[in-house]
Predict the structure.
Amino acid sequence: MAALPDIRQLSKEELQKVVAELGEPSFRAKQIYEWIWQKGATSFDCMTNISKSLREKLNQHFSFYAVKEEIVQKSKDGTIKLGMKLHDGRVIEGVMIPDADRATACVSSQVGCSLSCSFCATGLLKRERNLTAAEIYDQILLLHRHAMNFNQGRGLTNIVYMGMGEPLLNYDNVMRSIEKITGPEGLNFSPKRITVSTSGIARGIIRMADEGYRGNLALSLHAATNEKRSKIMDINRSNNLEMLMQALDYFYQKTGNEITFEYILLDGFNDSLEDAEKLIKLCQSFPVFVNVIEFNSVEGIPFKKTSAEKRTAFVDYLRQNRVRVKIRRSRGKDIDAACGQLANKH
Ligand code: SAH
Ligand code: SF4
């Protein structure tokens, strides 16, 4: 038997049409839509203000592919990693990072990743498929529940698309998920508290600017010359630094948003003062904030993290040259929940 279509793939207009075809009054479409995108329903049976007969009809015609929490791992620093099961049995990971004043969800956009950056655990997996907008959305609802336990019911304050996968290679679903998270008919979450991180897909960055994306953008830069960047990120061969800088400049011109550069310090590879000098040059075209990231070790990947002394020298040099920079502390390392460690190991 062919699988039934996923109800959450329907637009509001398509849902209205379905409800009319089922011979139901139009306000039912609004109720169903609210259950899906506002009230966090995980099945038709949750929709308690909808008649049993309509729920049965929906069940006959559609699937409700809710993501299920399977494994909860808790780090000693409070970070929580969830292993979540998709309807087809595949597993993805998402992380909730609690802080004094914030709770950040780090969500996946794909199962695996088609790129294979040489420092990243997810890059060791092959890309199996894109996540739907609803599957991305579900991760947020599940992580939100864990966040609420930490901050007396306030829940998530920030969302970063920095889990498994390359968000801009799943552009439509990622943007649709953001529309639902930020929309008045969804969670009404502020776009200023959302960050999409990309390994650098120039046409995706331009599209974001053209289509009125209002969140933050982070580029995984990690090396400031094409020669070095192509060695660790294959994607740089087709989307080189010139293309990326042009796309980012365009993004800044259109949105007025500063750009974050993410820069993992890799021992002996990109952590000298000459490397810093090249990075400084790249920070001069438009407003940039640099996140210097400690390398998180991954089994089978030979890179090592830079020593604290070298890291300080690198960061100080950037600061002396008026680059705004922050060192991003790794969280959840003991449960492989830190950046670049998500690999469905359990
Ligand atoms: N594909 C997107 C988003 C997911 S990766 C991207 O590449 O930007 C999220 C962040 O973790 C990226 O900045 C990525 O470069 C970084 N990362 C990957 N492997 C890492 C590792 N081993 N240690 C620290 N950061 C890592
Ligand atoms: Fe994919 Fe990002 Fe990891 Fe590169 S760093 S392999 S793009 S998830």
Observations:
- The CA atoms of residues 295 and 305 lie 5 Å apart.
- The chain is about 35% helix and 20% strand.
